[in-house]
Amino acid sequence: MKTKISINSKSFLRKLFAPAIAFLIANLFLAHKSFGQSSQTFTTPGTTTFTAPAGVTSVIVEVWGGGGAGGGGSTVAAGGGGGGGYKKVIGVTVVPGTNYTIVVGAGGVGAAANGQAGGTSSGTFGVTVVSATGGAGGIGGTPGAGGAGGTGGVGGFTGGTGAPGVNFGHGGGGGSSAGPGTGAGINGNTATSGTGATAVTGGGAGGNGGNGSGNGSSGTSPGGGGGGGINFGSVSGGSGGNGQVKISWVACTPPAAPTVTSPVNYCLNSTASQLTATGSNLLWYTVPSGGTGSSTAPTPPTSSAGSTSYYVSQTVGCEGPRATIVVNVNPLPGASSTKNDVQCFNTATGQIIVTGSGGTGPYTYSIDNGATYLNNGGTFNGLSAGTYQIRVKDSKGCESHAVQ
Fold this sequence. Notes:
It is built from one helix and 24 strands. The protein is mainly beta. It folds into three domains: 13-19 and 253-330, Immunoglobulin-like (Sandwich), CATH 2.60.40; 24-252, no CATH class; 334-393. The strands form eight sheets. The protein has a five-stranded antiparallel β-sheet with strand order 2-3-12-5-7, with no helix packed on it. A hairpin with a 1-residue loop joins strand 17 and strand 18 (318-319).
């Protein structure tokens, strides 16, 4: 028997439109929006997560370590705490929708003793870790030494060193990040605060040393060191400013979904072609969300009847939503016939009645092996004696096997 399969892939076009752009008021959200740029800043000490936004594959990461506390206690000249370190890395790779661990280092807590060190801040993005250590605490000595600044590692900046106490003076806290603290303990009851290089890094300033017989002032966040306390009794150094982690990325409006033709119809065991879509930098998926896209369009199998959905997106700056292509593999119809032979020799009085089954009706019918199909209800009259190849075609364009 002969088999002839027809392929019909014509159908309606379905277009998906890009989602509307939401304009957010920046001061209402932690994730601050600006024209073409977005960021999220983490300021609460402890561990949390950053979720990479849809369509974002690269971010800028900035971290500030916590400031060290100033020295205190029964001393005449406690030192200021060191400022937290700073580190910035551009082009950190992220996967949209993936959670990444963020740690914000706490500022050292002031006490009537040597100052407490500030905590390390960090962001972990797979194998890439961006971190900056906290500043050291000031010493409650006589006179007390200032705490060393925290470090930002290779390519980072070291926080300012807290100023030492001098005679009856009190050390200012070190500024955070790119420059040394300028606060200095002086002989007497006055001191200046350490100042961070804010024009470069946005680091916090160090706190003032205790005025006269008072406690040291706290450092400014992010990462300013606390000022030293002074008294012949017991006072506390100023606490360090908390660290900070800031993640920035270039905002992108996702493009519309690609233009596709769906559904695509095939007949059982027919030869299929690669799926197509109109768009840029296409990615093909077998799931509506998640998964890993392929730049190679799939070729649907046709070995079994049924429907399968495929999904495709395009990337223009960032990846857009996915369009759906439904591929239908339709079963073949069956054909059977009855006949009435010619009544007299060499006359055209024969009849064949063809019946279709299965597939998707209505049917058209052929007695010349599919060369022509008629919408005649399957009855062929006025036939001469001979051999006829009978076929049935259904509404999906699928043909039965030939039957004699």
